[in-house]
From TrEMBL:
Family annotation (PROSITE patterns): PECTINESTERASE_2 (PS00503)
Source species taxonomy: Eukaryota, Viridiplantae, Streptophyta, Embryophyta, Tracheophyta
Name the record gives this protein: Pectinesterase
Signal peptide region: none
Gene Ontology CC: extracellular region
């Protein structure tokens, strides 16, 4: 046992490390004779203390699962703790050989790329035979969604595999966060496809041919995420709970202090508009590489937003700044798409209710929820400012999305999202919303991004008869996903139609769309529109013990927690728990928000 102190101190086991260091210090500083007769009276207590520390260290190690990632182990061992150990073992145990966690992980990544490619080919096959198979428009729409999502999964796995393939130790924190974000997105993409296939009126041949393999491959992706967290993800270090405020570069619909390229400045000046205002401050770091204008009167470069998007360069990395699309006041009846190649696009309007993008697609009219969005964003680094995005389908059309956002490192500032059911689809990856207005009824903020809302206004509207309002419906399906909804310093008030109604409508903070749903409200104002129970179940006891719903230091008549639900997954959070969901800790905003010029605070207020 004494030789235990000569072993390395494992940084992934801080409790054991502390115990071992303390025992080692005592041992080195004290001349102890290991004589069981204990002739010196003051030696006996110290020796017993040392034995106690050794015992505690042994317990600390034995109480945790094997963590030596470089030692070959059977597949059954590495699969412990995954969502489906039996499936995991069947996938990894191709023969009787053992392997390290890293080797199993790389094998799983490569197999996932192969399977995602096969699924894409299968979807393409069905799409090419859509007319022959007599597929409905909703079935075709679901297949088209699956095609896009499968392509994204291939991209995400290819990127993450390149990172982990040569790494045989824990990755740097931000690199690991990037990988975990993309793997979380893979699972979200797969679940979105499955949900779409199951909800359409597709023929049995399609459902039989796609749902089963897609379900199995979703399990495979879960194994990949689990093995990544075991092998490559380091322990995250939280920043201080005390908040630092970063000033905004934007105000009054203007863009102050931008660093414009010569061409961008020339284009801007040719419009004759006063878009610039020099104020310095944080705005000096916001770079614009190029600029185009959209105006319905023909005075700009384009009259349609989608044409301006098409003019943006493909696959930029943001180092030269944003491609700025300035959209002048007007009502634009377009379904705008920012695809995966259009990265680091910044779109600025003339203000809420001045620059309006509007549409009315919905599920009743045979669109999928995923493709009903008026504005859909996938390109990394998108920033939207001073724009209203609407879906005018109305409550009777059920799911009808205004914005669908699946863009990593995306930001919306001073925007309004207006709809009824499923207004704002925070689909996946890392997102931030500041000083935005969000209107809706049922599940009007939903999805599985890692997203923070700061200083936003949430306006429940009047739903249809016999409906209730749910502000959020978070869709986390796996405990290793780094996703959830954090609502900080926001205000919840009834929209005018609900406030002026004589009907008794219940409004809840959220309900669990998926098994590991995660949503927190922190330091926000809740009016009496919020039901005293706070939260609503999805279907009986589903997810009540696996969800994480939290409230911290909220105010207003709706914030009273004395009559809240008593589910195992509901928490009245303390400051330590709340700190996990700040902008700095939850979405690592300090690493990417400053370049946007958007104001934010880092921690708790």
């Amino acid at each position: 046992m004494p030789t235990r102190f000569l072993s390395p101190i494992y940084t992934h086991d801080p409790i054991s490390a502390f115990i071992e260091v303390l025992a080692l210090v005592l041992l080195l500083r004290t001349p102890i004779k290991l004589n069981m007769a204990f002739p010196c009276s003051n030696t006996r207590p110290l020796f017993l203390a040392l034995l106690s520390l050794i015992f505690l260290s042994t317990l600390a190690h034995s109480a945790s699962p094997p963590t030596n990632t470089t030692t070959p182990v059977p597949a059954t061992t590495v699969c412990r703790g995954t969502q489906d150990p039996g499936y995991c073992s069947a996938v990894l145990q191709t023969d009787n050989r053992t392997a390290t966690v890293y080797e199993y992980g790389r094998f799983c990544f490569k197999k996932s790329i192969s399977q995602a490619t096969k699924l894409l080919n299968l979807v393409s096959k069905y799409l090419s035979q859509a007319h022959k198979l007599g597929l409905t428009p909703s079935a075709v729409g679901a297949l088209q969604d699956c095609s896009l999502l499968a392509q994204l999964n291939i991209d995400f796995f290819t990127t993450t595999f390149a990172t982990v393939n040569s790494a045989a130790k824990s990755l740097p924190v931000m690199t690991a966060e990037d990988v975990q974000t993309l793997l979380s997105g893979v699972l979200t993409n797969s679940q979105t496809c499955l949900d779409g296939l199951k909800s359409t009126e597709s023929t049995w041949s399609v459902r039989k041919g796609l749902v089963s393999p897609w379900t199995n491959d979703t399990k495979l992706y879960s194994v990949a995420l689990s093995l990544f967290t075991k092998a490559w993800a380091p322990k995250k270090l939280k920043t201080n709970a005390k908040s630092t405020h970063h000033r905004s570069a934007f105000g009054d619909g203007r863009v102050p202090g931008f660093n414009l390229s010569d061409r961008a400045r020339a284009v801007l000046e040719s419009t004759g508009r006063r878009l610039l205002q020099s104020t310095g401050g944080d705005a000096e770091g916001v770079m614009i590489s190029d600029l185009v204008t959209v105006s319905q009167d023909g005075s700009g470069n384009f009259t349609l937003i989608n044409d301006a998007v098409a003019a943006a360069p493909n696959n930029t990395n943001g180092s030269d700044g944003y491609f700025l699309i300035y959209v002048t006041a007007g009502v634009y009846e377009e379904y705008v798409r920012i695809d995966k190649k259009k990265k680091y696009v910044m779109m600025i309007g003339d203000g809420i209710n001045q620059t309006i993008i509007t549409g009315n697609r919905n599920v009743v009219d045979n669109y999928t929820t995923f493709n009903s969005a008026t504005l859909a964003v996938v390109g990394t680094g998108f920033v939207g400012i001073n724009i209203t995005i609407r879906n005018t389908a109305g409550a009777v059309k059920h799911q009808a999305v205004a914005l669908r956002n699946g863009a990593d490192l995306s930001t919306f500032y001073s925007c309004s999202f207006e709809g009824y059911q499923d207004t704002l689809y925070v689909h996946s990856l890392r997102q931030f919303y500041r000083e935005c207005d969000i209107y809706g009824t049922v599940d009007f903020i939903f999805g599985n991004a890692a997203v923070v809302f700061q200083n936003c206004n949430l306006y429940p509207r009047l739903p249809m008869a016999n409906q209730f309002n749910a502000i959020t419906a978070q869709g986390r399906t796996d405990p290793n996903q780094n996703t959830g909804i954090s609502i900080e310093n926001c205000t919840i008030r009834a929209a005018d139609d609900l406030a002026n109604s004589n009907t008794n409508i219940q409004t809840f903070l959220g309900r669990p769309w998926k098994q590991y749903s995660r949503t927190v409200y922190m330091q926000s104002f809740m009016s009496d529109v919020v039901d005293p129970a706070g939260w609503r179940d999805w279907n009986g006891t589903f997810a009540l013990d696996t969800l994480y719903y939290g409230e911290y230091n909220n105010t207003g008549p709706g914030s009273d927690t004395t009559k809240r639900v008593t589910w195992p997954g509901y928490h009245i959070m303390n400051v330590t728990e709340a700190t996990n969901y700040t902008t700095s800790n939850f979405i690592f905003g300090d690493e990417w928000l400053p370049q946007t010029g958007v104001a934010y605070f880092t921690g708790l207020l």
